[in-house]
Amino acid sequence: xxxxxxxxxxxxxxxxxxxxxxxxxxxxxxxxxxxxxxxxxxxxxxxxxxxxxxxxxxxxxxxxxxxxxxxxxxxxxxxxxxxxxxxxxxxxxxxxxxxxxxxxxxxxxxxxxxxxxxxxxxxxxxxxxxxxxxxxxxxxxxxxxxxxxxxxxxxxxxxxxxxxxxxxxxxxxxxxxxxxxxxxxxxxxxxxxxxxxxxxxxxxxxxxxxxxxxxxxxxxxxxxxxxxxxxxxxxxxxxxxxxxxxxxxxxxxxxxxxxxxxxxxxxxxxxxxxxxxxxxxxxxxxxxxxxxxxxxxxxxxxxxxxxxxxxxxxxxxxxxxxxxxxxxxxxxxxxxxxxxxxxxxxxxxxxxxxxxxxxxxxxxxxxxxxxxxxxxxxxxxxxxxxxxxxxxxxxxxxxxxxxxxxxxxxxxxxxxxxxxxxxxxxxxxxxxxxxxxxxxxxxxxxxxxxxxxxxxxxxxxxxxxxxxxxxxxxxxxxxxxxxxxxxxxxxxxxxxxxxxxxxxxxxxxxxxxxxxxxxxxxxxxxxxxxxxxxxxxxxxxxxxxxxxxxxxxxxxxxxxxxxxxxxxxxxxxxxxxxxxxxxxxxxxxxxxxxxxxxxxxxxxxxxxxxxxxxxxxxxxxxxxxxxxxxxxxxxxxxxxxxxxxxxxxxxxxxxxxxxxxxxxxxxxxxxxxxxxxxxxxxxxxxxxxxxxxxxxxxxxxxxxxxxxxxxxxxxxxxxxxxxxxxxxxxxxxxxxxxxxxxxxxxxxxxxxxxxxxxxxxxxxxxxxxxxxxxxxxxxxxxxxxxxxxxxxxxxxxxxxxxxxxxxxxxxxxxxxxxxxxxxxxxxxxxxxxxxxxxxxxxxxxxxxxxxxxxxxxxxxxxxxxxxxxxxxxxxxxxxxxxxxxxxxxxxxxxxxxxxxxxxxxxxxxxxxxxxxxxxxxxxxxxxxxxxxxxxxxxxxxxxxxxxxxxxxxxxxxxxxxxxxxxxxxxxxxxxxxxxxxxxxxxxxxxxxxxxxxxxxxxxxxxxxxxxxxxxxxxxxxxxxxxxxxxxxxxxxxxxxxxxxxxxxxxxxxxxxxxxxxxxxxxxxxxxxxxxxxxxxxxxxxxxxx
Length: 1089
Ligand SMILES: Cc1cc2nc3c(=O)[nH]c(=O)nc-3n(C[C@H](O)[C@H](O)[C@H](O)COP(=O)(O)OP(=O)(O)OC[C@H]3O[C@@H](n4cnc5c(N)ncnc54)[C@H](O)[C@@H]3O)c2cc1C
What we know:
Blueprint: H1 9-16, E1 30-34, H2 39-52, H3 59-70, H4 74-79, H5 82-88, H6 96-101, E2 105-110, E3 113-118, E4 137-144, E5 150-157, E6 168-176, E7 183-191, E8 198-199, H7 201-207, H8 214-227, H9 239-264, E9 289-293, H10 316-321, E10 337-343, E11 349-355, H11 357-361, E12 365-369, E13 379-380, E14 387-388, E15 394-395, E16 401-407, H12 410-417, E17 421-426, H13 434-439, E18 443-452, H14 455-461, E19 464-472, E20 484-489, E21 496-500, H15 505-516, E22 523-527, H16 539-555, E23 559-562, H17 565-571, E24 578-586, E25 592-604, H18 610-619, E26 629-638, H19 652-670, H20 674-681, E27 687-688, E28 694-695, H21 698-710, H22 713-726, E29 730-743, E30 753-759, E31 765-769, H23 778-790, E32 797-799, E33 802-803, H24 818-843, H25 849-858, E34 864-869, E35 875-877, E36 882-884, E37 888-901, E38 907-917, H26 924-944, E39 974-979, H27 1004-1021, H28 1035-1041, H29 1045-1052, H30 1080-1085
Parallel strand pairs: 9-39, 10-23, 21-22, 25-26, 31-32, 38-39
Antiparallel strand pairs: 1-4, 2-3, 2-4, 5-6, 6-7, 7-8, 10-16, 11-15, 11-17, 12-16, 13-14, 18-26, 19-24, 20-21, 20-23, 22-33, 24-25, 27-28, 29-37, 30-31, 30-34, 35-36, 37-38
Helix pairs in contact: 2-3, 7-8, 8-9, 9-29, 15-16, 18-19, 19-20, 23-24, 24-25
The structure holds flavin-adenine dinucleotide (FAD).
């Protein structure tokens, strides 16, 4: 226990051992805990103390424990110290507000001196300075027992319930005159709001002596808003939301205390209405329970044949133990250099000068690499505008690579990179948003349009027309392994080995060869595995690999480039943000007969694959619905943001969300339920899509019906309505969404694939193919295929790496197609080999595999074969607006249920049921893993992941602190995935279907369940029925749309407002608009009454 060396650690740790509790830490007035206690230890001690002492004494302990449950995560709490959290005085400390409000004391020591100060003293000046002298250390913290008539509470709201710093938090304490509700002493502290923890001192003083009633509540909220001045937003955070949280927290405290007063004296204190009770309970994270249902293989299948069985991912154990080797795990190459990129800090500017003199003087610095060091192509023209390795004269986004430093270590390279001085001259215009691009007519060509039926005529004959708009934010790939590469010049014949984390080695080879001006046959790309890619490791990786290769070429040394998370987020783009405008014509019975939609796609500064993404978004606009008259346009905006690129789902997650939004709007307008509108308009019989491709929707309907049934949708809908009647501040919502996910890449040659299989004389098999393992289990499945074809156990087959030296010109592993196409190639290679072995097997049918192989070698039969798959016959004629761009369709449906807290906007994903038609799964364990993973990533896009930029185009959200992807707490508490039984697919290997992407879109069932919950709030409050929600639907947006007196108080200012309405059941809100400046667009849709 005495191992730490922190200030006061020896004494502190000694003091807080729970075993020694009776000797020391529990004094007459409270508990004294050493400053060096880990937060986990503090949590344990408080938990034990609470169990041992009367409730009345432990209210402070309970409030501190409340914060400790969600502060950081388990790992953080295990290492972060109690003292460190306090003394840092960060505004984000979850402990300081509650410790300060509870009159905790700090025991300080300096040479020969000890003193005790109140906790609140350290925030006295409100800017982070304090009364502790530099010589003093914090020895321990005294947490007092609560007294009779004293109530304490702590609150926090963060972008994610766990492992996320708070947006706003609070600690509150009230002490009443004995036996009354007259305030004797009140403390309110807030965190997360300004530079440090702040006290609403004036408010507390003013309210002392007042009764604990609604008048006091009203005044308290007004005073708090007046006293705690929040500075304008500097990092994209919404100040109005923080203010709303401040008063909402106080209201929650008011309810808690009112309820406690009732418990104390039910005759005098009425407590709170029953339907308010549930808001006093916070959402808790429980270990998710998951159910996975799939069809077992038939009884006639050989036990050795692994196809169709839930075989574990071949690297699963290695992933978990950390033994799996990624690029940065590769051992150093002799003389290796590290590369750090120097990136543009301007969104659009002319480069006036680059001064590298200071950088070159840096310790360990070897060289600075610029555009002048590129031997051949610096620009790549895949379309009219180029993709660029190094900025030449001009920068077109923040994060564009201008030059790079190579040094003997990562640290030295980064230190020197920071010393490169670049002088800029700003250029106009700086275009960051879609709106700005439209204003400046800044687009990439071509613009795309699809049309079927007669849209104009249809609008003439419909009962109703609605028009709407939705904004969908971007998303970062946030792969576990950031962009990584190691370029190793081989010292002769201009050969270079490239170890790259990419999903497309052939394009890396092509780009690097072109940039160095050497033939492709000198560049060997190797990929063992990739730590996640999701579409982000194609062209972007090609440019970064070229940077490393140019540096390696110039220095003749191996060069390693591993982007930090921050650099990765700043340099690379992500999923395309969309703005969609739509006009929908429908009949009163819910039939939608006309849709006219326009998609604006933020492509960023270079084309990448943005036009393809836009095309796919149009091809998939119908999702599961037959719309007889449909017209849609897609425009790719050229902006000064990093170039956006491919991302799982490739335009469908955005397009599908738009479609489901107008479906929901039609439901709102007709008064029918969204599921009814979905059913009415769903494809029902053999039909043609809007681009005239044939479609059999039988399995779509089966998925929908099974999902309805398995989720018990109807009875749960009733239960939710009942829950919502009985709960005012908590509401539940449910939504069921169907999906048709077309499979294909629209271009035949992009789905060709090859494999290479060697059999060695000991009978072992080495398999390779053009597909990339990025965690999705392709190699496991390919070994299953080879095992079936060669009729040997999987253990006899090994996969080493994907390489341009073994399988040339392989297409990218994209679009859920990896298993489909490479599986065919592996099968082909194995069948070739087996054919060669047939005569030998025939001669010795009882022989073993090893006997046959040995014999084959003796007979000079080649034991190596390539396999090939030509690709699918897919095409699209954009002139005619018709074609056959997809080979088959994956169908699915998901039903999700959520619960929201209307006071904070927080929500919990309660349950999700997914039914997915993936044909005959080759590996149900791997495939269901893909569905679950994609679904949760979809939850991220639709409800959490928010990118914030400054008005100069600088990304604020550049790491896990600011950018939140889903965590365990976001997985639905009950999560069931069932694979549709008896589904066949004649177009893919062993009747399977590609499944990497489809599950992603189903994450939007959570978005619509949240919308359903918000609708219930608005209906109860008499707020306007039609309202628009954007993606991601964050806590902030949920809170703003659950308009109440608090949001109104913040919006309108603080004078002359009465808080009575929210505590009345039939409250009719007089609010005119919801939300603050951040929701400027939403405001127009939100006129309430
Ligand atoms: C990923 C992550 C997530 C987090 N999430 C949250 C969160 O949600 N909520 C939250 O409240 N906090 C959060 N934290 C902060 C965390 O709880 C700790 O407060 C933080 O890490 C500092 O504690 P430490 O033990 O590391 O302190 P240190 O880094 O060791 O110390 C911090 C400062 O205090 C000084 N110091 C430490 N002990 C003493 C002492 N006894 N006397 C005088 N000076 C001292 C140190 O010299 C240093 O200047 C998070 C931290 C991380 C890394």
